# Entry
Amino acid sequence: MTVHLSDWIPMLKLIILDLDQTLLDTLHRFHQVYSEMIGGISWEEFVKLFREDRLDELIKGDRAEFWEEFTRRFSKARHPEDRPIRGAREVLRELSRKYHVVVTTGRRVPPEEVWRELKEFGLAEYVHEVHTLMGHDGVWHRDSLLRRILESHGVEPEEAIFVGDYWVDMESAREAGIRAVGVRTGLEPDRRLREHGAVMILDGIWELRKALEEIVRNDP
# Structure
C-alpha cells in the first residue's frame, strides 16, 4: 500500500534533513578524500561504485575505523565543486518559518564543524539545530540519534519527517518510526530507497516545498 504525505501532514512539527547530497552537493569532495585514503581511484570508477554502494570493497583493514577517519577528514576538507543543492536555500527559508528544522549527518564530528559549513554556504540562518553521529554507535545508521531528537522535543514519530538521499537514511528513519522521504541527488536507485523505507521519492530538495504546499492546500 502506498503511503502519502497527506495521511500525516496535518500534525507535522519537525523536519529532519540529511546534509550531504541532500542539502549540500559534496560528491566531488567525497571522491577526493576517499581517493586519497585508498591510494587513488578515478572519478568514473568512484561514481560507479558509489551508485552501487560498493565503496567498502576497496577498503583495506577495519571498515568502521576507515569511515570514522573519513568523516573527520571529509568535514575539514573543501572542494571547488562544493555547493548547496539546487533550491536548498529557498526551501529551508520557507520551511523554517513553519516548522522546526533539524540537520543531521553521518559525520562523526562536533556539530560546530557542521554549523561552520552551513554558514559558508548561506544555510545556517534557516536551520534550528544540528546533530552529528559523534558519540553514537554504528557506522552510518542514525535511528538512535533520531529517537533522541524526537524525545528532546517531546514529538511523536508521526509528527516528523526525515529527508535523505541514502538507503541507510531511509532505514534509520523507519526504525525510529519516522516517515522517510528520499531524494535522488545522492544517485541512489529508487528501488533501494523504497526497499528501506522511503514513502515518497523526489528528484531533489527543491521539490519538497511544493509537495508540502500541495498537500496542505488539499487537506480538508
